[in-house]
Amino acid sequence: ENLFVIEDCAEAFGSKYKGKYVGTFGDISTFSFFGNKTITTGEGGMVVTNDKTLYDRCLHFKGQGLAVHRQ
């Protein structure tokens, strides 16, 4: 129960394992939208979590680590 799980769902968008969608098993999950993946946008990706603390930390990195309010 003390294991932190990061799911790599890059090639499994919409897939299920034992009736449960991938991206819902771990503490945080990642999806890739690069050109050679199942769903593409050219580049980019998505991170999903239901943990508010992890969500807030991810917001910091979405702009490549730049501060939300540049000073």
Report what the structure shows.
The protein is an alpha+beta fold and about 70 residues long. The protein has one domain (about 5-60). Helices cover about 15% and strands about 25% of the residues. It has 1 helix and 5 strands; from the N terminus they run βββββα. The protein has one helix at about 50-60; strands spanning about 5-10, 15, 20, 30, 45-50. The strands form 2 sheets. Strands 1-4-5 form a 3-stranded mixed sheet, covered by helices on one side. The model has no long low-confidence stretch (mean pLDDT about 85).
Describe this structure in a few short sentences:
One of its GO terms (biological process) is polysaccharide biosynthetic process. The chain is an alpha+beta fold.
Main beta-sheet annotation: 3 strands, mixed
Beta strand count: 5
| Proportion in helices | 10-25%
The largest sheet has its strands arranged as 1-4-5
- Element order, helices and strands? EEEEEH
Give the end-to-end Cα distance, rounded to a whole number of Å. 41 Å
Strand content: 15-25%
The best one-word shape is flat
Total domain modules: 1
Mean pLDDT, all residues = 85
Low-confidence stretches: none
Query: What's the Cα radius of gyration?
Result: 14 Å
Seen as an oligomer or otherwise, the chain set is single chain
Count of discrete alpha- or pi-helical segments spanning 4 or more residues: 1
Structural class by SSE content: alpha+beta
